[in-house]
Specification:
2 domains; binds D-tryptophan; elongated; single chain; binds zinc ion; Aminopeptidase; 8-stranded mixed sheet; Jelly Rolls; 9 helices; 6-stranded antiparallel sheet
Protein backbone atom coordinates (compact mmCIF):
# COMPACT_ATOMS: atom_id res chain seq x y z
CA UNK A 1 0.00 0.00 0.00
CA UNK A 2 1.25 3.48 -0.65
CA UNK A 3 0.01 6.96 0.02
CA UNK A 4 0.34 8.59 -3.33
CA UNK A 5 2.00 8.15 -6.66
CA UNK A 6 5.51 9.39 -7.06
CA UNK A 7 6.86 10.23 -10.45
CA UNK A 8 5.06 9.65 -13.69
CA UNK A 9 2.03 7.47 -13.86
CA UNK A 10 1.68 4.68 -16.38
CA UNK A 11 -0.07 5.93 -19.48
CA UNK A 12 -3.38 4.13 -19.51
CA UNK A 13 -4.36 3.32 -23.03
CA UNK A 14 -8.01 2.51 -23.20
CA UNK A 15 -8.90 -0.03 -25.83
CA UNK A 16 -12.16 -0.67 -27.56
CA UNK A 17 -14.71 -1.37 -24.89
CA UNK A 18 -16.46 -4.66 -25.05
CA UNK A 19 -18.45 -5.19 -21.90
CA UNK A 20 -16.93 -2.60 -19.64
CA UNK A 21 -16.41 -3.12 -15.95
CA UNK A 22 -15.24 -0.28 -13.76
CA UNK A 23 -11.67 -0.03 -12.55
CA UNK A 24 -10.92 -1.88 -9.31
CA UNK A 25 -12.39 -1.71 -6.77
CA UNK A 26 -15.44 -1.71 -9.05
CA UNK A 27 -18.53 -0.86 -7.12
CA UNK A 28 -20.30 1.55 -9.45
CA UNK A 29 -22.26 0.40 -12.46
CA UNK A 30 -21.35 3.10 -14.96
CA UNK A 31 -18.03 3.00 -16.83
CA UNK A 32 -15.42 5.58 -15.83
CA UNK A 33 -15.13 8.79 -17.82
CA UNK A 34 -12.43 8.50 -20.43
CA UNK A 35 -9.98 11.28 -21.06
CA UNK A 36 -7.13 11.68 -23.51
CA UNK A 37 -4.04 9.67 -22.61
CA UNK A 38 -1.57 11.67 -20.50
CA UNK A 39 1.88 12.62 -21.75
CA UNK A 40 4.28 9.70 -22.04
CA UNK A 41 5.98 8.94 -18.73
CA UNK A 42 9.75 9.09 -18.39
CA UNK A 43 9.81 6.11 -16.05
CA UNK A 44 7.12 3.54 -15.52
CA UNK A 45 5.42 3.93 -12.17
CA UNK A 46 6.50 1.49 -9.51
CA UNK A 47 3.90 -0.99 -8.36
CA UNK A 48 2.36 -0.86 -4.93
CA UNK A 49 3.66 -3.79 -2.88
CA UNK A 50 0.87 -5.44 -0.87
CA UNK A 51 2.03 -5.47 2.75
CA UNK A 52 -0.26 -8.45 3.38
CA UNK A 53 1.90 -10.49 1.01
CA UNK A 54 5.04 -9.41 2.86
CA UNK A 55 3.38 -10.38 6.15
CA UNK A 56 2.45 -13.77 4.69
CA UNK A 57 6.15 -14.46 4.10
CA UNK A 58 6.83 -13.47 7.72
CA UNK A 59 4.20 -15.96 8.86
CA UNK A 60 6.03 -18.64 6.89
CA UNK A 61 9.34 -17.73 8.57
CA UNK A 62 7.60 -17.89 11.95
CA UNK A 63 6.16 -21.32 11.17
CA UNK A 64 9.57 -22.51 10.01
CA UNK A 65 11.18 -21.34 13.26
CA UNK A 66 8.44 -22.85 15.41
CA UNK A 67 8.80 -26.24 13.78
CA UNK A 68 12.62 -26.18 13.92
CA UNK A 69 13.51 -25.50 17.51
CA UNK A 70 12.32 -21.89 17.64
CA UNK A 71 14.98 -20.20 15.49
CA UNK A 72 16.52 -19.85 12.06
CA UNK A 73 20.21 -19.57 12.94
CA UNK A 74 22.71 -20.18 10.12
CA UNK A 75 23.54 -23.84 9.83
CA UNK A 76 20.29 -24.89 11.49
CA UNK A 77 17.26 -26.61 10.01
CA UNK A 78 15.30 -23.38 10.42
CA UNK A 79 17.73 -21.53 8.18
CA UNK A 80 17.83 -24.32 5.62
CA UNK A 81 14.02 -24.37 5.50
CA UNK A 82 13.96 -20.56 5.12
CA UNK A 83 16.32 -20.81 2.15
CA UNK A 84 14.13 -23.53 0.63
CA UNK A 85 10.99 -21.41 1.05
CA UNK A 86 12.47 -18.32 -0.60
CA UNK A 87 14.16 -20.37 -3.31
CA UNK A 88 10.96 -22.19 -4.24
CA UNK A 89 9.06 -18.94 -4.71
CA UNK A 90 11.83 -17.41 -6.81
CA UNK A 91 12.25 -20.42 -9.05
CA UNK A 92 8.53 -20.60 -9.68
CA UNK A 93 8.59 -16.92 -10.63
CA UNK A 94 11.29 -17.40 -13.25
CA UNK A 95 14.45 -16.25 -11.48
CA UNK A 96 17.88 -17.66 -12.08
CA UNK A 97 18.59 -18.91 -8.58
CA UNK A 98 21.90 -20.01 -7.08
CA UNK A 99 22.80 -21.35 -3.67
CA UNK A 100 26.35 -20.50 -2.71
CA UNK A 101 27.88 -22.49 0.13
CA UNK A 102 29.76 -20.20 2.48
CA UNK A 103 32.82 -22.22 3.43
CA UNK A 104 34.31 -19.44 5.55
CA UNK A 105 31.18 -19.04 7.67
CA UNK A 106 31.06 -19.94 11.35
CA UNK A 107 28.13 -22.18 10.50
CA UNK A 108 28.61 -23.66 7.06
CA UNK A 109 25.43 -22.75 5.18
CA UNK A 110 24.22 -21.16 1.99
CA UNK A 111 23.69 -17.71 0.54
CA UNK A 112 20.81 -17.55 -1.89
CA UNK A 113 21.26 -15.39 -4.98
CA UNK A 114 18.53 -14.70 -7.53
CA UNK A 115 18.82 -12.71 -10.71
CA UNK A 116 16.02 -11.50 -12.94
CA UNK A 117 17.19 -12.63 -16.38
CA UNK A 118 16.73 -9.37 -18.28
CA UNK A 119 18.79 -6.24 -18.75
CA UNK A 120 22.51 -5.74 -19.33
CA UNK A 121 24.65 -8.38 -17.60
CA UNK A 122 27.42 -5.86 -16.99
CA UNK A 123 25.28 -3.37 -15.07
CA UNK A 124 23.79 -4.85 -11.95
CA UNK A 125 21.90 -3.37 -9.02
CA UNK A 126 21.77 -5.63 -6.03
CA UNK A 127 19.34 -5.85 -3.11
CA UNK A 128 20.23 -7.97 -0.10
CA UNK A 129 18.99 -9.02 3.32
CA UNK A 130 20.29 -11.60 5.77
CA UNK A 131 18.00 -14.58 6.12
CA UNK A 132 19.68 -16.08 9.17
CA UNK A 133 18.70 -15.19 12.72
CA UNK A 134 20.12 -15.64 16.20
CA UNK A 135 19.32 -18.79 18.20
CA UNK A 136 17.39 -16.83 20.84
CA UNK A 137 14.22 -16.54 18.75
CA UNK A 138 12.48 -16.75 15.38
CA UNK A 139 14.13 -13.59 14.01
CA UNK A 140 11.08 -12.06 12.40
CA UNK A 141 12.07 -8.41 12.50
CA UNK A 142 15.77 -9.40 12.45
CA UNK A 143 15.67 -10.24 9.64
CA UNK A 144 12.56 -11.89 8.35
CA UNK A 145 11.45 -8.33 7.64
CA UNK A 146 14.17 -7.42 5.14
CA UNK A 147 14.02 -10.92 3.66
CA UNK A 148 10.26 -10.77 3.13
CA UNK A 149 10.34 -7.25 1.70
CA UNK A 150 12.88 -8.37 -0.90
CA UNK A 151 11.09 -11.62 -1.67
CA UNK A 152 7.80 -9.87 -2.36
CA UNK A 153 9.52 -7.23 -4.47
CA UNK A 154 11.24 -9.95 -6.46
CA UNK A 155 7.91 -11.70 -7.05
CA UNK A 156 6.20 -8.50 -8.15
CA UNK A 157 9.02 -7.66 -10.56
CA UNK A 158 8.71 -11.12 -12.08
CA UNK A 159 4.93 -10.91 -12.30
CA UNK A 160 5.13 -7.58 -14.13
CA UNK A 161 7.78 -8.80 -16.57
CA UNK A 162 8.73 -5.26 -17.61
CA UNK A 163 9.38 -5.01 -21.31
CA UNK A 164 12.61 -3.09 -20.83
CA UNK A 165 15.18 -3.43 -18.09
CA UNK A 166 17.92 -0.77 -18.00
CA UNK A 167 19.84 -2.68 -15.32
CA UNK A 168 20.02 -6.25 -14.13
CA UNK A 169 18.39 -6.79 -10.77
CA UNK A 170 20.00 -9.30 -8.42
CA UNK A 171 18.66 -10.23 -5.02
CA UNK A 172 20.56 -11.93 -2.20
CA UNK A 173 19.52 -13.58 1.05
CA UNK A 174 22.70 -13.79 3.13
CA UNK A 175 23.66 -16.42 5.65
CA UNK A 176 25.73 -16.13 8.85
CA UNK A 177 25.28 -12.37 9.19
CA UNK A 178 24.77 -12.76 12.90
CA UNK A 179 28.21 -14.33 13.33
CA UNK A 180 29.93 -11.38 11.66
CA UNK A 181 28.61 -10.54 8.16
CA UNK A 182 30.18 -13.76 6.95
CA UNK A 183 27.88 -14.80 4.12
CA UNK A 184 27.97 -11.42 2.37
CA UNK A 185 31.73 -11.14 2.88
CA UNK A 186 32.21 -14.56 1.35
CA UNK A 187 30.09 -13.52 -1.65
CA UNK A 188 31.98 -10.28 -2.24
CA UNK A 189 35.27 -12.16 -2.01
CA UNK A 190 33.99 -14.74 -4.49
CA UNK A 191 33.50 -12.09 -7.20
CA UNK A 192 36.22 -11.32 -9.69
CA UNK A 193 37.31 -7.70 -10.09
CA UNK A 194 35.32 -7.60 -13.32
CA UNK A 195 32.18 -8.90 -11.62
CA UNK A 196 32.58 -6.39 -8.78
CA UNK A 197 32.86 -3.68 -11.41
CA UNK A 198 29.46 -4.66 -12.78
CA UNK A 199 27.82 -3.86 -9.42
CA UNK A 200 26.48 -0.33 -9.69
CA UNK A 201 24.96 -0.38 -6.23
CA UNK A 202 24.20 -2.64 -3.29
CA UNK A 203 21.11 -1.97 -1.14
CA UNK A 204 20.78 -3.60 2.29
CA UNK A 205 17.63 -4.29 4.31
CA UNK A 206 18.16 -5.39 7.91
CA UNK A 207 15.35 -4.84 10.46
CA UNK A 208 12.82 -2.79 8.51
CA UNK A 209 9.77 -3.47 10.70
CA UNK A 210 10.86 -2.39 14.21
CA UNK A 211 7.77 -1.76 16.35
CA UNK A 212 9.16 1.45 17.87
CA UNK A 213 11.07 2.07 14.69
CA UNK A 214 12.62 5.03 13.02
CA UNK A 215 13.22 5.72 9.35
CA UNK A 216 16.89 5.27 8.66
CA UNK A 217 18.77 5.30 5.38
CA UNK A 218 22.37 4.17 4.96
CA UNK A 219 24.57 6.93 3.47
CA UNK A 220 21.48 9.09 3.20
CA UNK A 221 23.05 11.94 1.23
CA UNK A 222 24.67 9.69 -1.41
CA UNK A 223 23.36 9.47 -4.96
CA UNK A 224 22.97 5.75 -4.37
CA UNK A 225 20.48 6.49 -1.59
CA UNK A 226 18.53 9.00 -3.71
CA UNK A 227 15.65 6.74 -4.83
CA UNK A 228 15.12 5.32 -1.33
CA UNK A 229 15.19 8.82 0.12
CA UNK A 230 12.93 10.23 -2.60
CA UNK A 231 10.25 7.69 -1.79
CA UNK A 232 10.26 8.36 1.95
CA UNK A 233 10.47 12.12 1.32
CA UNK A 234 7.33 11.79 -0.80
CA UNK A 235 5.52 10.38 2.23
CA UNK A 236 6.66 13.33 4.35
CA UNK A 237 8.80 11.09 6.54
CA UNK A 238 11.95 12.87 7.61
CA UNK A 239 14.48 10.04 7.38
CA UNK A 240 17.84 10.15 9.13
CA UNK A 241 21.22 8.57 8.64
CA UNK A 242 21.42 4.94 9.85
CA UNK A 243 24.07 5.65 12.47
CA UNK A 244 23.28 2.67 14.67
CA UNK A 245 23.68 0.18 11.85
CA UNK A 246 26.97 1.50 10.43
CA UNK A 247 29.40 -1.31 9.75
CA UNK A 248 27.02 -3.78 11.35
CA UNK A 249 25.23 -5.35 8.43
CA UNK A 250 25.81 -6.84 5.00
CA UNK A 251 26.37 -3.58 3.17
CA UNK A 252 29.72 -3.32 4.96
CA UNK A 253 31.65 -5.92 2.88
CA UNK A 254 30.36 -4.24 -0.29
CA UNK A 255 31.35 -0.82 1.00
CA UNK A 256 34.83 -2.16 1.87
CA UNK A 257 35.14 -3.44 -1.70
CA UNK A 258 34.37 0.02 -3.10
CA UNK A 259 30.82 -0.75 -4.21
CA UNK A 260 28.32 2.07 -3.57
CA UNK A 261 25.81 1.08 -0.89
CA UNK A 262 22.61 2.23 0.76
CA UNK A 263 19.57 0.66 2.40
CA UNK A 264 16.69 1.11 4.79
CA UNK A 265 16.52 0.22 8.49
CA UNK A 266 14.05 0.88 11.31
CA UNK A 267 16.55 0.34 14.11
CA UNK A 268 17.65 -2.24 16.68
CA UNK A 269 18.48 -1.86 20.38
CA UNK A 270 19.32 1.86 20.37
CA UNK A 271 16.70 4.13 21.90
CA UNK A 272 14.40 6.56 20.18
CA UNK A 273 15.08 10.19 20.98
CA UNK A 274 12.33 12.59 21.95
CA UNK A 275 12.94 14.50 18.71
CA UNK A 276 12.45 11.30 16.75
CA UNK A 277 9.32 10.37 18.70
CA UNK A 278 7.96 13.85 17.99
CA UNK A 279 8.35 13.49 14.23
CA UNK A 280 7.72 9.75 13.78
CA UNK A 281 5.60 8.79 16.75
CA UNK A 282 6.48 5.93 19.09
CA UNK A 283 8.07 5.92 22.52
CA UNK A 284 11.00 8.19 23.35
CA UNK A 285 13.61 6.53 25.52
CA UNK A 286 12.70 3.01 24.38
CA UNK A 287 14.55 0.77 21.93
CA UNK A 288 13.50 0.86 18.30
CA UNK A 289 13.10 -2.91 18.56
CA UNK A 290 12.36 -4.03 22.14
CA UNK A 291 12.73 -7.69 21.06
CA UNK A 292 16.09 -7.35 19.35
CA UNK A 293 17.83 -10.76 19.48
CA UNK A 294 15.18 -12.07 21.84
CA UNK A 295 12.61 -14.86 21.85
CA UNK A 296 9.86 -12.26 21.43
CA UNK A 297 11.07 -11.36 17.90
CA UNK A 298 7.93 -13.00 16.47
CA UNK A 299 5.33 -11.89 13.93
CA UNK A 300 3.94 -9.68 16.72
CA UNK A 301 7.22 -7.78 16.71
CA UNK A 302 6.74 -6.07 13.35
CA UNK A 303 5.21 -2.72 12.50
CA UNK A 304 3.04 -3.08 9.40
CA UNK A 305 3.51 0.61 8.61
CA UNK A 306 7.29 0.40 8.62
CA UNK A 307 7.20 -2.84 6.65
CA UNK A 308 4.88 -1.33 4.07
CA UNK A 309 6.89 1.84 3.64
CA UNK A 310 10.07 -0.12 3.16
CA UNK A 311 8.47 -2.52 0.70
CA UNK A 312 7.06 0.30 -1.42
CA UNK A 313 10.34 2.23 -1.25
CA UNK A 314 12.23 -0.80 -2.53
CA UNK A 315 9.80 -1.08 -5.44
CA UNK A 316 10.25 2.60 -6.15
CA UNK A 317 14.03 2.19 -6.17
CA UNK A 318 13.94 -0.90 -8.38
CA UNK A 319 11.73 0.84 -10.89
CA UNK A 320 13.78 4.05 -10.84
CA UNK A 321 17.08 2.27 -11.15
CA UNK A 322 16.38 -0.70 -13.34
CA UNK A 323 13.03 -0.67 -15.11
CA UNK A 324 13.27 1.12 -18.40
CA UNK A 325 11.15 3.88 -19.66
CA UNK A 326 10.76 1.59 -22.64
CA UNK A 327 8.07 2.73 -25.00
CA UNK A 328 5.28 4.24 -22.96
CA UNK A 329 2.47 1.81 -22.89
CA UNK A 330 4.75 -1.04 -23.85
CA UNK A 331 2.71 -4.13 -23.48
CA UNK A 332 4.22 -7.40 -22.34
CA UNK A 333 1.02 -9.03 -23.47
CA UNK A 334 -0.14 -12.45 -24.50
CA UNK A 335 -2.75 -14.95 -23.44
CA UNK A 336 -2.74 -14.87 -19.65
CA UNK A 337 -5.02 -17.72 -18.62
CA UNK A 338 -3.21 -20.97 -17.95
CA UNK A 339 -4.70 -24.28 -19.08
CA UNK A 340 -7.41 -22.23 -20.72
CA UNK A 341 -9.24 -25.13 -22.35
CA UNK A 342 -8.81 -27.46 -19.35
CA UNK A 343 -7.02 -30.10 -21.42
CA UNK A 344 -3.82 -30.29 -19.35
CA UNK A 345 -4.91 -31.37 -15.87
CA UNK A 346 -6.09 -28.83 -13.30
CA UNK A 347 -3.08 -26.52 -12.70
CA UNK A 348 -3.19 -23.52 -12.41
CA UNK A 349 -6.91 -23.75 -11.71
CA UNK A 350 -8.09 -24.33 -8.15
CA UNK A 351 -11.52 -24.99 -6.71
CA UNK A 352 -13.94 -27.86 -6.27
CA UNK A 353 -12.51 -31.28 -7.10
CA UNK A 354 -14.03 -32.85 -10.16
CA UNK A 355 -15.21 -29.63 -11.79
CA UNK A 356 -12.64 -30.02 -14.55
CA UNK A 357 -13.83 -33.11 -16.32
CA UNK A 358 -13.95 -35.05 -19.58
CA UNK A 359 -17.32 -36.56 -18.71
CA UNK A 360 -19.23 -37.29 -21.89
CA UNK A 361 -22.51 -36.28 -20.22
CA UNK A 362 -21.80 -32.72 -21.35
CA UNK A 363 -19.90 -31.71 -24.49
CA UNK A 364 -16.64 -29.78 -24.38
CA UNK A 365 -16.49 -26.81 -26.73
CA UNK A 366 -12.97 -27.81 -27.80
CA UNK A 367 -11.01 -30.94 -26.91
CA UNK A 368 -12.60 -33.21 -24.35
CA UNK A 369 -12.21 -31.35 -21.05
CA UNK A 370 -14.25 -28.44 -19.72
CA UNK A 371 -15.25 -27.07 -16.32
CA UNK A 372 -18.68 -28.33 -15.31
CA UNK A 373 -20.04 -26.36 -12.39
CA UNK A 374 -23.34 -27.34 -10.83
CA UNK A 375 -25.48 -30.09 -12.29
CA UNK A 376 -26.03 -31.71 -8.90
CA UNK A 377 -29.78 -31.22 -8.52
CA UNK A 378 -29.26 -30.61 -4.79
CA UNK A 379 -28.08 -27.77 -2.60
CA UNK A 380 -24.45 -27.17 -3.53
CA UNK A 381 -21.74 -24.61 -4.20
CA UNK A 382 -18.87 -25.27 -6.58
CA UNK A 383 -15.99 -23.00 -7.51
CA UNK A 384 -13.25 -22.65 -10.08
CA UNK A 385 -10.48 -20.05 -9.73
CA UNK A 386 -7.27 -18.87 -11.26
CA UNK A 387 -5.01 -16.01 -10.22
CA UNK A 388 -3.94 -13.80 -13.11
CA UNK A 389 -1.31 -11.09 -13.37
CA UNK A 390 -2.25 -8.46 -15.92
CA UNK A 391 0.76 -6.63 -17.34
CA UNK A 392 0.50 -2.85 -17.36
CA UNK A 393 0.55 -0.83 -20.55
CA UNK A 394 -1.56 -2.89 -22.94
CA UNK A 395 -4.33 -1.42 -25.07
CA UNK A 396 -6.89 -4.10 -24.44
CA UNK A 397 -7.65 -6.80 -21.94
CA UNK A 398 -10.58 -8.88 -23.17
CA UNK A 399 -11.52 -11.75 -20.89
CA UNK A 400 -13.53 -14.34 -22.78
CA UNK A 401 -15.11 -17.58 -21.71
CA UNK A 402 -17.58 -19.86 -23.41
CA UNK A 403 -20.58 -20.87 -21.36
CA UNK A 404 -23.18 -23.54 -21.97
CA UNK A 405 -26.10 -23.74 -19.54
CA UNK A 406 -28.67 -26.52 -19.42
CA UNK A 407 -31.29 -26.94 -16.75
CA UNK A 408 -34.03 -29.22 -15.45
CA UNK A 409 -35.80 -26.21 -13.97
CA UNK A 410 -39.10 -25.58 -15.76
CA UNK A 411 -39.71 -21.99 -14.79
CA UNK A 412 -39.24 -19.15 -17.26
CA UNK A 413 -39.30 -16.46 -14.63
CA UNK A 414 -37.59 -17.57 -11.43
CA UNK A 415 -33.90 -17.86 -10.64
CA UNK A 416 -33.09 -21.00 -8.67
CA UNK A 417 -29.53 -21.84 -9.64
CA UNK A 418 -26.84 -19.35 -10.50
CA UNK A 419 -23.30 -18.85 -11.71
CA UNK A 420 -21.37 -15.80 -10.53
CA UNK A 421 -18.21 -14.68 -12.30
CA UNK A 422 -15.91 -12.51 -10.22
CA UNK A 423 -12.55 -10.88 -10.73
CA UNK A 424 -10.56 -9.15 -8.01
CA UNK A 425 -13.53 -9.67 -5.69
CA UNK A 426 -15.95 -7.75 -7.94
CA UNK A 427 -18.77 -9.40 -9.82
CA UNK A 428 -18.36 -9.38 -13.59
CA UNK A 429 -21.54 -11.23 -14.47
CA UNK A 430 -24.24 -13.50 -13.13
CA UNK A 431 -26.06 -16.26 -15.03
CA UNK A 432 -28.87 -18.57 -13.99
CA UNK A 433 -31.21 -21.33 -15.04
CA UNK A 434 -33.03 -18.62 -17.02
CA UNK A 435 -30.03 -18.32 -19.39
CA UNK A 436 -30.15 -21.99 -20.45
CA UNK A 437 -29.62 -22.83 -24.11
CA UNK A 438 -28.37 -25.74 -26.16
CA UNK A 439 -24.98 -24.39 -27.23
CA UNK A 440 -21.91 -22.58 -25.95
CA UNK A 441 -22.12 -18.78 -25.95
CA UNK A 442 -18.98 -16.58 -25.89
CA UNK A 443 -18.99 -14.02 -23.10
CA UNK A 444 -16.42 -11.22 -23.23
CA UNK A 445 -15.54 -8.56 -20.65
CA UNK A 446 -13.06 -5.72 -20.67
CA UNK A 447 -10.91 -6.16 -17.55
CA UNK A 448 -8.50 -3.29 -18.31
CA UNK A 449 -9.29 -1.86 -14.88
CA UNK A 450 -6.99 -4.52 -13.45
CA UNK A 451 -3.95 -3.71 -15.62
CA UNK A 452 -0.77 -4.00 -13.59
CA UNK A 453 -2.47 -6.02 -10.86
CA UNK A 454 -2.65 -9.60 -9.73
CA UNK A 455 -6.27 -10.66 -9.36
CA UNK A 456 -8.21 -13.87 -8.99
CA UNK A 457 -10.87 -14.90 -11.49
CA UNK A 458 -13.55 -17.06 -9.87
CA UNK A 459 -16.59 -18.90 -11.18
CA UNK A 460 -19.05 -19.91 -8.46
CA UNK A 461 -22.13 -22.06 -9.09
CA UNK A 462 -24.83 -22.33 -6.45
CA UNK A 463 -27.76 -24.67 -6.81
CA UNK A 464 -30.90 -24.94 -4.75
CA UNK A 465 -32.37 -28.15 -3.33
CA UNK A 466 -33.78 -29.65 -6.50
CA UNK A 467 -33.69 -29.71 -10.33
CA UNK A 468 -30.18 -29.36 -11.70
CA UNK A 469 -28.65 -26.54 -13.69
CA UNK A 470 -25.28 -27.17 -15.32
CA UNK A 471 -22.94 -24.25 -16.00
CA UNK A 472 -20.29 -25.61 -18.35
CA UNK A 473 -17.33 -23.35 -19.04
CA UNK A 474 -14.65 -23.89 -21.69
CA UNK A 475 -11.87 -21.91 -23.40
CA UNK A 476 -11.25 -19.12 -20.91
CA UNK A 477 -8.82 -16.54 -22.33
CA UNK A 478 -7.48 -13.13 -21.43
CA UNK A 479 -5.58 -11.80 -24.39
CA UNK A 480 -3.66 -8.69 -23.32
CA UNK A 481 -2.40 -6.77 -26.37
N1 LIG B 1 22.92 -6.35 11.65
C1 LIG B 1 22.06 -6.22 12.79
C2 LIG B 1 22.68 -5.33 13.74
C3 LIG B 1 22.19 -3.97 13.80
C4 LIG B 1 22.43 -3.24 14.84
N2 LIG B 1 21.90 -2.03 14.68
C5 LIG B 1 21.29 -1.95 13.52
C6 LIG B 1 20.59 -0.91 12.95
C7 LIG B 1 20.03 -1.09 11.74
C8 LIG B 1 20.16 -2.28 11.09
C9 LIG B 1 20.87 -3.33 11.66
C10 LIG B 1 21.45 -3.16 12.92
C11 LIG B 1 21.76 -7.61 13.30
O1 LIG B 1 21.48 -8.44 12.48
O2 LIG B 1 21.75 -7.87 14.49
ZN1 LIG C 1 20.05 -8.21 11.33
ZN1 LIG D 1 20.74 -9.61 14.48
Amino acid sequence: MRGRTLGAAVALVVGAAITTIPAAPPTVASPPARTAAPAPPAVLAAPDIAVANVQAHLTQFQTIATSNGGHRRAGSAGHTASVAYVKGKLQAAGYTVTEQTCTSCVYRSNNLIAEWPAGPTDQVVMFGAHLDGVSAGPGINDNGSGSAVLLENALVLAAQRPATMTKRVRFAWWTDEEQGLNGSEFYVNSLSATQRGYLKGYYNFDMVGSTNGGYFINRITSTTAAPLKAYWDSLGIQPEENVEGQGRSDDYPFQQAGIPTSGYAAGASARKSSTQAAKWGGTAGSSYDPCYHRACDTTSNVSATHLDRSADGVAYAIWQLAVGSGTPGTCAGGQLVGNSSFETGTTPWTGTTGVITSSTSRPARTGSYKAWLGGNGGTSTETLSQTLTLPAGCASYPLTFHLRIDTAETTSTRVYDRLTVQIGGATLATYSNLNAGSSYVARTFDVAGYAGQTVTLTFTATEDASLQTSFVVDDVTLQAS
